[in-house]
Amino acid sequence: MGRFTVCPKTGLKRGAWTPEEDGLLSAYIMRYGHWNWREIPKYAGLSRCGKSCRLRWMNYLRPNIKRGNYTREEEELIINLHEKFGKRWSAIAASLPGRTDNEIKNHWHTHLKKRTKQNTTSTKAKRKPVGCETLRLKESANCYQAISRPLILESSGFLPMSPEKSCDIPSSSADSEVEIIQKQVTYESPISSSDAVSDFSGSFWTDEPFLLEDILNMSEDVTSVLVDPSFQFPLSPLGRDIYPYDLYHDYDMDIFFNH
DNA sequence: AACGTAGCCAACCGCAGTCTT
DNA sequence: GAAGACTGCGGTTGGCTACGT
């Protein structure tokens, strides 16, 4: 959002993330996991504070993030959970896979709060259709992203991603894609799948810090692919695209939907 | 077409809880 | 047990975009 480009106190960059920064952070975490947020920007080659990196990853770059297109079921669940938990957004988010506390909080303030007020003031008030009524371009892009990214990289490790209702993917095709991807991971990943799992648990340590050079030395220069917006389906170090929709939504979206 | 306004949402801040030494 | 470091959470901000005039 560019409130400040550089923090005057620390000299660290602030504000909106660039595609290059997203690529560097994603590439680093996908390869090494988030072992120490404070140190990550240093080794990933980012002029950001660790807190900013964590926020960006958790709310935006994480592989299984769902964006936009809240289903009626999700909204009802949020309302019910809000009655139960109040403003404990993280507790609410725990019941909505793929949704972040920040996004739920925003959605509550912009949509659901009004609706609950309307419900209390007028039980006859018509419900606005929820979900896809204002499908924006970037949300469409993210819907695509969800289709193309069947891996969930939670702390528990890799899990096949269930197809999203809002995207109407036949489960059979999604499942078969998962199979293909799992083979790709086995074949392409420079680290074993068990290592990968431990990486994402955030519980591994080594004697040597992970350097940016390590990423840059990856086979076929993965990072250059990651930061190249003209590359349509960039692969993560684990063999799948990890690119956030932000990288794409400024470009011609036809590259997604014409394939 | 130009301008003003409102809504959306990414990102920041500060605080609290947890972990490590 | 104390102190410092780290992480996570909720509140808030402000730039961007869509919409109305």
TrEMBL record:
Its main location: nucleus. GO terms for molecular function: DNA binding. Residues 9-61, 62-112 form the Myb-like domain. Pfam families: Myb_DNA-binding (PF00249). It comes from Aquilegia coerulea (Rocky mountain columbine). It is found in: Nucleus. InterPro entries: Homeodomain-like_sf, Myb_dom, Myb_TF_plants, SANT/Myb. This is Uncharacterized protein. One of its GO terms (cellular component) is nucleus. Residues 9-61, 62-116 form the HTH myb-type domain. The keyword DNA-binding applies. It comes from the Eukaryota. SUPFAM superfamilies: Homeodomain-like (SSF46689). Keywords: DNA-binding, Nucleus, Repeat.
